[in-house]
Design brief:
Layout (H helix, E strand, L loop, with lengths): L4 E10 L2 E11 L4 E5 L6 H9 L6 E6 L2 E4 L12 E5 L10 H6 L6 H14 L15 H13 L5 E5 L7 H18 L2 E6 L2 H7 L2 E6 L2 E6 L1 H6 L4 H7 L3 E8 L2 E4 L2 E4 L8 E6 L4 E5 L15 E11 L3 E8 L5 E7 L9 E6 L5 E4 L2
Parallel strand pairs: 3-8, 3-9, 6-7, 7-8
Antiparallel strand pairs: 1-2, 1-4, 4-5, 9-10, 11-12, 11-14, 12-13, 14-20, 15-19, 16-17, 16-19, 17-18
Helix pairs in contact: 4-5
Length: about 350
């Protein structure tokens, strides 16, 4: 079976500057793909080309294996079986909820009423069927917008930052409700977001964009645990970076030598460690930590500052060797005084080594 949505080698330039460069991916029915990346990386332009409101310079778009657009053939947006949901919800202020949801339906009156009732029940908005958008909260408007987008049973649903206008306390619950409904409908979903947490929570696959290109795509677990480069690692969490140069297939750091085979001597290297993967132990008069990990050495450091963040504590360190700044996060409350000497340790299987770009 072909993917429900397939994009092949999309390109788009404005004023001679390419903003989407050779983008390709597929989204199966019933799955959510997230186009993730910083503002201006080409996410929304890609979405507009798939929706049919912008035209690609080259490349092809398919729905259920059928061509909907290339540089010669182009189905109009309303014939692509693609639904749209935007961050401002775009509800019609002069129509009640029932008519907003029914707006895109083309069946008979009874069938339309049944479809509206079904969806409002599934998004728990039946009691607001006669309300107008201005009478609803942001979360309620989001549910109505979702019901309206799904009412015509689109094969593909495009969502552009759909949760960004919601109060942070509401987002997780509404994301989960939305995801459950989309899965039930079997719709292929392409969600645009700049928030890694949202992509990790909702996506079956993440398409990480940078400067108009997809730099890495795959399951959230794979992007987090096997990033393609330092920038990918930094996009999903805070990082510590040790720098060095290759000497005889090794790179020296305060934590000992790291294997960097296959790279010529002098190659600059970034060694990336997430703060939660730094382990600590108190200094015992220069005797070293109580238990040094078998797969790594320890570095002596002093506490610069410690802060409690709610679920965890952030401790900032500076190593005694080379005065390198490093951050560690620890669960619960841990607030050692400034100047405290401590040993920092790491697991080498949780460290990423990249040639510096």
């Amino acid at each position: 079976m072909p993917p429900r949505l397939e994009v092949q080698n999309l390109n788009r330039a404005f004023d001679g500057q390419r903003v989407v460069a050779d983008v390709s991916f597929g989204v199966p029915a019933g799955q959510v793909a997230c186009l993730l990346g910083p503002s201006g990386c080409g996410k929304s332009t890609t979405l507009r080309m798939i929706a049919g409101v912008d035209m690609q310079d080259s490349g092809r778009i398919f729905v259920d294996g059928k061509l909907v657009c290339d540089t010669v053939f182009r189905l109009p947006p309303e014939r692509r079986a693609i639904g749209l949901m935007f961050q401002d919800f775009a509800l019609f202020p002069h129509l009640p909820v029932s008519e907003n949801v029914a707006f895109g339906l083309k069946g008979g009156h009874a069938a339309n009423r049944a479809r509206v009732a079904e969806l409002l029940d599934r998004v728990r908005m039946t009691s607001h069927i006669d309300s107008y958008p201005h009478e609803l909260s942001g979360g309620e408007q989001q549910r109505v917008a979702l019901a309206r987008a799904l009412a015509p049973r689109p094969r593909v649903l495009l969502m552009d930052e759909p949760f960004s206008g919601l109060d942070e306390r509401l987002r997780d619950g509404i994301r989960d409700e939305t995801l459950a409904l989309l899965k039930e409908e079997g719709t292929a979903v392409l969600l645009v977001t700049h928030e890694p947490h949202e992509a990790m929570r909702m996506a079956d696959q993440i398409l990480l964009m940078r400067d108009g290109r997809i730099v890495q795509q795959g399951a959230p677990y794979n992007l987090y645990n096997a990033p393609a480069d330092r920038q990918v690692a930094a996009f999903f969490s805070d990082i510590n970076v040790l720098t060095g140069r290759v000497r005889g297939a090794l790179t020296a750091t305060p934590f000992g030598d790291f294997l960097t085979p296959g790279l010529p001597d002098g190659t600059p290297i970034d060694i990336v460690i997430r703060p939660q993967h730094l382990k600590i132990d108190f200094d015992r008069g220069g005797k070293g930590p109580a238990a040094t990990p078998e797969d790594g050495s320890a570095a002596l450091a002093r506490v610069v500052r410690a802060r409690y963040l709610g679920r965890e504590s952030l401790v900032e360190f500076r190593t005694e060797q080379d005065a390198i700044a490093l951050n560690a996060t620890l669960p619960g409350v841990f607030l050692p005084p400034e100047g405290t000497k401590m040993w920092l340790m790491l697991r080498r299987d949780r460290v990423f080594v990249f040639p510096r770009g």
